[in-house]
Amino acid sequence: MAAKKLAIIATKGTLDWAYPPFILASTAAALGYDVEVFCTFYGLQLLKKDVSDLQISPLGNPGMPMKMPMGPQWFRDINWNIPNIIQANVPGYEAVATTLMKKTIANNGVATISELRELCQEAEVKFLACQMTVELFGFDSDKDFIDDIDYVGAASFFEFAGESDICLYI
């Protein structure tokens, strides 16, 4: 019996949007699926050698709870849902949100993006970089990206995705 297939299209390159494709890909691979992740447009950030600089973008994400992991307990318990108009106009807001998210990730023992990506690679998840987007954004495939990824067009990815049991757009 052939293994089930999971195809993921990753289009986002922020810290919070990096988790879903890596968690789903590593889980599916652990369950015996053949997995391919096609990274296009901003999703190419997930394939860069250094992902430690990925940022959070709370702008336009009203469901994102912002808890402050400092100060007295009553202060930490407040859900700081800050309106988009303020987020857009406060200098350094994304840096603060990123720092808070990284602290929350570390405090809860959640794997880093680098660790999850390595787990995927060990599990033989196949990473595909959209060749057109690489060229469009002027990336250097030899310098900018991790090893062991394929550079393909959308048509090549469709061969796998068209036969997949599950196809996710993230």
Structure description:
38% of the residues lie in helices and 15% in strands. By secondary structure, the protein is an alpha/beta fold. It starts with a strand and ends with a strand. The mean pLDDT is 87.
Features:
alpha/beta, single chain, about 170 residues, 5-stranded parallel sheet, 5 strands, Hypothetical Protein Ychn, Chain: A
Which helices and strands, and how do they pair?
Blueprint: E1 5-10, H1 15-30, E2 34-39, H2 73-76, H3 84-89, H4 93-107, H5 113-122, E3 126-130, H6 131-136, E4 149-152, H7 154-161, E5 166-169
Helix pairs in contact: 1-5
CATH class of the largest domain: Alpha Beta
Q: State the total count of DSSP E strands.
A: 5
- Using the alpha-carbon principal axes, give the shape: globular
β-sheet strand percentage:
5-15%
Instruction: Count the DSSP helices.
Output: 7
Please tell me the CATH architecture of the largest domain by its name: 3-Layer(aba) Sandwich
Q: What is the string of SSEs from the N terminus onward?
A: EHEHHHHEHEHE
Look up the CATH topology of the largest domain. Hypothetical Protein Ychn, Chain: A
N/C terminus separation: 29 Å
Approximately how much helix is present in the residues? Answer: 25-40%
Extract low-pLDDT stretches: none
Q: What's the CATH superfamily of the largest domain, by name?
A: DsrEFH-like
- Find the structural class using helix and strand composition: alpha/beta
How many discrete domains? 2
Largest sheet: 5 strands, parallel
Mean pLDDT: 87
CA gyration radius, whole angstroms: 18 Å
Strand order of the largest sheet: 4-3-2-1-5
